[in-house]
Design goal:
By secondary structure, the chain is an alpha/beta fold. The chain has 10 helices and 9 strands. The model has no long low-confidence stretch (mean pLDDT 92).
């Protein structure tokens, strides 16, 4: 079968993104199948992330694959000095596809260059998180009925938040207007603002976060303000409670507006928001199953027609 990597969202065309969304829709209709029966998926998590790992492993299991791997790099041969290259080559002997999360930017791209099997990037440093981006795109499409011409507000840690970086690159095909809402210490890096200008993406920057600022949002994408990123804790104390979404801030929100968050949440979304009809972050996490099933099939050369004609569905 044809196979390729899923390392970055940056090289996906508009048509490919919509194709992946269409495939995810097929899996949402029937998530339990045996399309990957006999396949082995390796999950190599050199950086912890329970949610992403469990989502990938559930996607593999629901497609009939077997899962091997680790969630704690301290138990790997890397502690003995084994290089990433050797780890990838060794695991490639056992698995048909490798899902890898790593703290070093570019590690997934490097792995894809040395591995004889497909590499799926589950997050590399502060760089990209393409599978999270795919489930974000699927969530936006499901809630808005389109990806085109949307007002998307990105709030919180825009400096280190790889999910928002990936979303900017993916949305370049769909004429968005971005609003970057962040303290100056965690503002969107210049390289992504340059990227927006080069690709004709409209954006505005804000430091205030209130009911009026977000009134025009179609998507309100919250992220955690990370205390550990601040060199001056007084600065953190100054901004930490400015970027908390409370239910009373939603009184002027558009009816179609949905609140997304890559999770985990700390205190940036008050718990009284959970019961508001605009809240969508729990459903968003659930959409990760279908998006990642689509990713597995795509990297292994299984087409949407194969999925539609699949006779291994388990009801």
């Amino acid at each position: 079968m044809e196979k390729h990597n899923f390392v970055t969202i940056a090289n996906l065309t508009r048509e490919k993104i919509l194709y992946m969304i269409e495939m995810a829709q097929e899996f949402e209709k029937h998530p339990n199948r045996e399309l990957l029966k006999g396949k082995v998926v390796a999950t190599l998590f050199f950086e912890p992330s329970t949610r992403t790992r469990l989502s990938f492993e559930t996607a593999a299991n629901r497609l009939g694959a077997r899962v091997i791997g680790f969630a704690d790099p301290k138990i790997t041969s890397g502690t003995k000095g084994e290089t990433l290259k050797d780890t990838i080559l060794m695991v490639s002997n056992y698995a048909d596809v490798i899902v890898m999360r790593h703290h070093i930017e570019g590690a997934a791209q490097y792995a894809s260059e040395v591995a004889p099997v497909p590499i799926v990037n589950a997050g590399d440093g502060a760089h990209q998180h393409p599978s999270q981006c795919m489930l974000d795109l699927y969530s936006i499409y499901k809630t808005q009925g389109t990806l085109d011409n949307l007002n998307i507000y990105l709030v919180g840690d825009l400096k280190y938040g790889r999910t928002v970086h990936s979303l900017i690159m993916a949305m370049r095909h769909f004429n968005p207007t971005f609003h970057f809402v962040a303290p100056k210490e965690l503002s969107m890096p210049n390289e992504y603002k340059i990227y927006c200008r080069e690709h004709g993406i409209k954006f505005q920057e804000h430091t205030a976060f209130n009911e009026k600022v977000i009134a025009d949002a179609d998507i309100l994408y919250m992220t955690r303000v990370q205390k550990e990123r601040f060199s001056d804790l007084m600065e953190y104390e100054r901004v930490k409670d400015v970027y908390i979404l409370r239910r009373d801030m939603l009184s002027s929100a558009k009816p179609n507006m949905k609140i997304l968050h890559p999770l985990p949440r700390v205190n940036e979304i008050a718990y009284d928001v959970d019961n508001d009809p605009h809240a969508y972050y729990i459903q968003q996490a659930g959409n990760g199953l279908f998006a990642r099933q689509a990713i597995f099939c795509d990297v292994l050369g299984i087409s949407i027609d194969d999925v539609r004609n699949d006779n291994t569905i388990i009801n």
